Amino acid sequence: MDLFSHLFLGFSVALTASNLLFGFLGAVIGTAIGVLPGLGPAATIALLLPITYWIDPTPAIIMLAGIYYGSMYGGSTTSILLNIPGEASSVVTCIDGFKMAQKGRAGAALGIAAIGSFVAGTVSVIGLTLFAPPLAKFAIKFGPTEKFALAFVGMLLAASLSSGSKIKGFIMVALGLFLGAVGLDPITGKVRFTFGLVGLQSGFDFVTMAMGVFGLGEIFFNMETVLKMEVITTKVGKVFPTIQDLIRTKWAIMRGTLIGFFIGIIPGGGATISSVTSYAIEKKYSKHPEEFGYGAIEGVAGPESANNASSSSSFIPMLTLGIPGTAAMSIIFTAMVMKGVTPGPFLATGRPDVFWGVIASMYIGNAMLLILNLPLVGLWVQMLRVPYKVLGPLIILFTFVGVYSTNNDSYDIFAMLFFGVLGYFIKKFNFSPGPLMLAFVLGEMIENSLRQALLISGGDLSVFITRPISGGIFGFFGILVVGQVIMGVWRRSRINNVTTES
Amino acid sequence: MWNRDRIVALVIVVMGLFIASHSVLVLKFGSIHHPDSGFLTFFVGLAFVGLGGIWALSAKASRRSTGIFIEKNRWIKPLLALILMISYAMAFKGLGYITSTLAFMVAWQQVIERQNWVNTLIVSVLSAAGMFLLFGFLLQVPLPMEIFSR
What we know:
The complex is a heterodimer of chains A (502) and B (150). Chain A is mainly alpha-helical. Helices cover 74% and strands 1% of the residues of chain A. Chain A is built from 22 helices and 2 strands. Chain B is mostly helical and 150 residues long. The longest helix of chain B is centred in the first third of the chain and has 24 residues. Chain B is elongated. The chains are: A mainly alpha (502), B mainly alpha (150).
């Protein structure tokens, strides 16, 4: 009954006119940026952070959340119609989605992507509703030892699961921790790594960093490539799949939902890994694996369901534990802190209007997105005709004015340019910016928790293993690492055996 | 063999050595019982050294990234873009929002996008006006005044 009363509160918050409007705006913007290649949800949320200064906390977070899961819906459109993923999480949708479009089944592909996304998103939000409150209650018992363990392991997991090599992921983590340490030490007040620059004494601003790395960095990098887009000229036609399509994909949607939900909870899990894992599983267990790569509808339904499920479940660690698991979550985390709302175990009890309002808005948002994506697909396709020559400079203008508006200081613009150059090199050398942002956000918590834990324990490091919760977290991480090493050795020995036999 | 990855890895190792030594000598490491300001940053520096070293060794072993450090001509456009943006940042407060933004947009459309003058003027004016409407009018952000109106 408690749960229902909380949900009732949530819906009473989410169904107000302003929250509905911002939820709708978030869904529309999210779908739009999902459709447009070159701009991801993390970058867009970063760009819109300055706008949220003028909005109340609840509608601001509802809008940003809407952008995040909305982009998962939009990403499939370009994957299916152009063979260009609108988002990283829609890469696998290109494989079979575009083939379906070439065979004149673009409508069915778009339709099943939207329906799968809706089902997965809704089921995932139900999971969020059920899992989040007990997890938050459990997390209230966490002391500095547990907080350090959770944040540290979460950060390492995110680095090891990021795209590209693990070494580069860990280097990004180290860089994020270093950049987070620049400025005044919050405990001793000593100035660290400012090199005499007064402007750095308050440290780097996350908004500036996020807009630079994601916004400008992306622009600089995109200037090196020319996107050649060949729009499918056949009519999209009906966007409702047939009954046979729905029957055929029901298990793919269910499996994708479960895969996405559980992977999304893990820091670093995210939508991309969920969709790739789902595709691999669908291909493995399909009755028609030979169709994969040539227009198998399960190859669209599963991954699109998975990426949407993970976009909702990734809110669980952020809202209940205060640990953002992805770059986009770390930006939403910062937005919440900026609005005076601290994500973590006390959010559900301290600000139930925000906590349950955001959850309720996701139910509404998923329904809005189904309506936006099915009948309005023609409109989204038209958006693809906006040339990047116009969009690129608009984004630059938006970042400049947006970042200036935070403090009315040109220094922030120069800082953003510095991070823009850093973001360019991050992409150029195949690093992933996600672990950098995560480590930057979690760095202060990690350092403070570590120092507090050592002060309390009198310098006894074994406390991180002997205390049951932190010991369990480190133990779980240890098992994962050992498991990965064993898998790596086993794979190599298989390759050697095959080579020897041939 | 010096390839792109090894050079970057070396830079990371050097950076790590600097961070670790600065943490110990200037910020002070403290002790395990009483960590000081340089405690965590010392280990961050060590991490840079270790990870950079591993990367340098694995880059040498794989030989995959043996491409030239800077691909010919691909960096010119981003560099031009950066120069324009720095100029815009310097002029933003000095010249005022409208003047600096119009100048930036015109320069961008001509130099980077190679648009014709009609499109340049349309995009520049509409973009500057649109941003002013959003930030200056709707959000009431105090944008820098024009130099000639002060």
